[in-house]
Design a protein that fits this description.
Blueprint (H helix, E strand, L loop, with lengths): L2 H10 L3 E4 L3 E4 L24 E7 L19 E6 L2 E6 H8 L1 H4 L1 H7 L4 E6 L8 E2 L3 H4 L9 E4 L13 E4 L7 H9 L13 E4 L5 E4 L5 E2 L5 E2 L2 E2 L5 E2 L3 E2 L2 E2 L2 H4 L11 H6 L3 H4 L4 H5 E2 L2 E2 L3 H7 L1 E7 L6 E7 L4 E4 L5 E7 L1 E4 L2 E4 L13 E4 L1 H6 L1 E4 L7 E7 L9
Antiparallel strand pairs: 1-4, 1-26, 2-3, 3-6, 4-5, 6-13, 6-14, 7-15, 8-11, 9-10, 9-12, 11-18, 16-17, 19-20, 20-21, 21-28, 22-27, 23-26, 23-28, 24-25, 24-27
Length: 403
């Protein structure tokens, strides 16, 4: 991709890039089939790769998916038209070229990259109890820690899957020795580590904050997940939903000199957070309006913070009412996905398709530069009945987040 083409696309979109759908399979998952992919395409990458149950948004982070991972797996592509020809280039290359002009000087000077991505995780059943490493452990393998957060969009949760409950953390009173013994039993059958945890019922339209170092076994709702730009994890549960978890996933992202060291696996756990008796009070999230609701209603929209407990990222849900035209400003760059409705977004057409073929280009995902966000994006909803609903994900230190 020529540098001039990145600049041309940036100018064409008035500081907003259109992005292509970015599908990611997981060999240990069964697709929940709620992310609008065509029924024939959930195994488009081959049965040996597993089903597609994730779509990544605004990603400059490659998926860490084993030896069969594709060259660009997990990476978002920008799409633009040049003299009637459709062309694509990596969002990662656009960030490297445009730097602060795209993501803002604050993020560029701090990270030298776009430091987060979001995704849909759409699994039919529960995941194993697992953990994402904190910076102190991830840095041992040259990676960043991975905080993440969950929001359950009502539009994508017409059914709850097989187990719409998530285990979080450990019960107060659980000891490190109990956890160590469960981990040492990993290859002996069901190590029953969730016996030491607590499950919470998942509710569409709400969410959870999940700091790194917290054990969690995500349930079967379709989840919108803003997260730090990292794909580190380790599976601490040996059997889930009658599926065997391979032992190498227990030691995933463990330094070579710590392989076989169960005390190290226990040390990865942020103990105080996991055994917090007020875990739900400190990590559950209900949406919070960004400004007085009546004021927004009069202008034809409603916007809520849906992810707001982590300093590493944040997210909003924007609803533009039928027939309304509004200009929305933000003080930070963001990625966005249209989960419902159609209309215009700046110079772009937007629409939320009912069904997407693998490889098909859509008009439901964009990346908004900091300057374009500050200038304000004009959104027009021509529908007489259907709202436009947009999910917006931001990087670290969002200056607008003052809850």
């Amino acid at each position: 991709m020529k540098r001039s083409e990145i600049h041309a696309a940036f100018e064409q979109g008035k500081g907003i890039f259109r992005l292509a759908p970015n599908w990611v399979p997981r060999s240990f998952c069964v697709p929940g089939r709620r992310i609008k992919l065509h029924p024939d395409d959930y195994y488009a990458l081959g049965m040996n790769r597993g089903g597609i149950d994730e779509r990544w948004f605004s990603s400059t982070t490659p998926a860490d998916n084993g030896p069969l991972t594709g060259e660009f797996e997990g990476l978002s592509f920008c799409v633009y038209e040049d003299k009637g020809e459709t062309k694509q280039f990596l969002l990662r290359d656009a960030v490297d070229e445009l730097k602060g002009a795209l993501i803002g000087e604050r993020l560029w000077n701090t990270y030298g990259k776009w430091p987060m991505f979001s995704k849909f995780f759409d699994n039919k059943g529960p995941l194993p109890h697992h953990i994402h490493h904190r910076d102190e452990h991830a840095s041992k393998i040259g990676m960043m820690g991975k905080p993440e957060a969950y929001y359950f969009p009502p539009q994508l949760n017409n059914h709850g899957g097989d187990f719409p409950y998530t285990f979080f953390g450990l019960q107060p009173g659980v000891t490190k020795e109990q956890v160590k013994q469960a981990l040492m039993a990993f290859t002996k059958g069901d190590n029953k580590i969730t016996d030491l945890s607590s499950a919470y019922r998942l509710v569409p339209g709400t969410g959870w904050d999940v700091p790194p170092g917290v054990l969690h076994a995500p349930g079967s709702l379709c989840t919108y997940e803003p997260q730090m730009a990292s794909d580190v994890f380790a599976m601490y549960q040996s059997l889930v939903n009658d599926a065997v978890i391979e032992e190498d996933l227990l030691w995933k992202n463990t330094p070579k000199d710590k392989l076989g060291d169960f005390d190290y696996l226990v040390d990865v756990i942020d103990w105080e957070v996991n055994v917090d008796p007020l875990f739900a009070e400190h990590h559950f999230m209900v949406p919070k309006p960004v400004r007085p609701v009546e004021e927004m209603h009069e202008l034809g929209y409603e916007e809520k913070w849906i992810v707001y407990r982590s300093p590493a990222f944040s997210a909003k849900e924007l609803t533009v009412y039928p027939g309304a035209s509004v200009t929305i400003t933000d003080n930070a760059a963001y990625g966005m996905y249209v989960v419902q409705g159609h209309g215009t977004f700046g110079t772009w057409n937007i629409e939320s398709p009912a069904l997407i073929r693998f490889g098909q280009l859509t008009y439901d995902e964009y990346f908004v530069s900091e300057d374009a966000a500050k200038d304000g994006v004009r959104i027009v909803n021509p529908s007489k009945s259907d709202p436009i609903v947009i999910l917006k994900h931001f990087g670290a230190g969002n200056p607008d987040l003052k809850l």
